[in-house]
Amino acid sequence: MVPSALTLLLVLGAAATVLAEPLRFVDCGSIDGSIQEVNVSPCPTQPCLLHRGTSYSINVTFSSKIESQGSKAKVYGEMLHVDVPFPIPEPDGCKSGIQCPIRKGRSYSYLNKLPVKDEYPSVKLIVKWELVDDQGQMLFCWKIPVQITS
């Protein structure tokens, strides 16, 4: 009976590791920062299945190449190469895990929520997430494929 319990623990451990893996993302123009890791939770596989009526946790680890007093997030759903603004509850990066002012050479964890409203259609699209500095330059920009579902 011990081997089967050990096997179960190994399988559960492997599953937990898969769930904790950082996402593959496309950097879409990070100029003033460098992305180390992007996590969307829960999103065990890509494209991420985003269920309507659910909110997802976003965690981006990045380092800054500049000094900035603040930052602002902009999120889009990209469909047919058109960026459709996607509202988020807190666009202010200084209220999203980043200690401001932002310092050159420091690493930060940006934390936010991505609410998927009930009225969103079931569709495949690209989520594009930007964080801009005081000068409107991108601290980071990343894209991932998602599918909104009921």
TrEMBL record:
Residues 1-20 form the signal peptide. Residues 25-146 form the MD-2-related lipid-recognition domain. Pfam families: E1_DerP2_DerF2. InterPro entries: Ig_E-set (IPR014756), ML_dom (IPR003172), ML_Npc2-like (IPR033916), NPC2-like (IPR039670). GO terms for molecular function: cholesterol binding. It is found in: Secreted. GO terms for cellular component: extracellular region. This is NPC intracellular cholesterol transporter 2. It comes from Psilopogon haemacephalus.
